[in-house]
Amino acid sequence: MEESLMANKITLFSKNNCMQCKMTKKLLEKAGADFQEINMDERPDMIDYVKSLGFTAAPVIKAGEIAFSGFQPNKLKEII
Predict the structure, then answer these.
(1) Has the keyword DNA-binding been applied to this entry (predicted)?
(2) CATH number at residue 40
């Protein structure tokens, strides 16, 4: 699974009805970032993976060795 996540530079783990997820996705799209989105409501099997990274709330952004949660524009700009 880790290899498939690395195929894209940035992976956004999101959930439905999550305003911070929507804001994060919008920022990534506006910046033209190469990212994939995984909706954990549609892929509940990914919840354990996100928890293994140490996160319990969406959105979670993973880019290589970097991972963080929440809408953090400054961190997003650093990885784009």
Answers:
(1) no
(2) 3.40.30.10
